[in-house]
Amino acid sequence: PERCFSIVVLLVALIVFSSFIGTATAAITSLRNIASQQEYWLLRKYLRGTVSKDLSIRIQRYVRVRVDAHKVRVQMDQVNFLKFISIPLRLELQSELFEPSLKAHHFFLRLVRQSKGLFRDLCSNAIRQDLLCRLDILFNVGDRAHSMYIISKGLMKYTALGELESVNLRYQNYCSEAALWTDWVHMGKMIALWECDLVAISKQGFYTVARNHPSEMSGLVLHGAQFVDLLNRQMHENGRVSDIGPDVLHSPHMRSSMGLGDSSLLHCSVSLRVRELLAKIQSCCRKKHDRDDSD
Predict the structure, then answer these.
(1) How many helices and strands, by DSSP H and E, does the chain display?
(2) DSSP characters over 148-190
(3) Phi then psi for 276, rounded to 5 degrees?
(4) 192 forms bridges with which residues in the sheet?
(5) Residue 154 has what pLDDT?
(6) Does residue 249 carry a pLDDT above 60?
């Protein structure tokens, strides 16, 4: 009898304790939801009467999508112990985070295989993650290009200057590679059709990292010269160029060897026709902006 009584008491205690834990957990969750709803209420209150209804809806939608994603996936800044890891481990961590997206491009895939040190430095000093809301404009015709972009999540639409049809870009598609190799002006408009995550390779950061790896410079210059050479060929044959492509690796025009002279220079020059086209687009866009400002 005493043993049975002890077992019953133990079971009752477990049930009561479990009920207490469940109640406490529900209360904490409820408090968090209340705090979250209050933040949404403050956001709506701030936007009401301040901005247009369309912009308000876009902002609220984007915030909800990002907050939900933040709840599902642990962010790096939430893990305090990552502050204690060594610099080499931090560089390796960052390179592995960006590697799946960057390997979609043959140039960065070759860096991963042959120049891991350069690739790690790029991931640490020249690459960032950009987040776009639905209908955000990444760039417009005539904007000066400062980065190359690779889509890691979402869907984007590119419309080239003078073209009626658009091109959709999805996971691991890329654009604006020309920004890394020459002075480039965007030749079309890129807009997000859905919430998008982009990997952006900064032109200035790319140059800085490249100069710190002189042993790799000749290979970088070779790739850049081949890309710009193909860009010039495209302009000569079609009378136009685009922010998308050309793909140097799979092009029949790619040359395996090319005399470059001074391999310490990373910047490559486009042809006179391409420069004239870029200057004309910039001039037209500048005049349009001036007219808009005067109005």
Answers:
(1) 9, 8
(2) EEEEEES-EEEEETT-SS-EEE-TT-EE-THHHHS--B--EEE
(3) -65, -40
(4) 156
(5) 92
(6) no
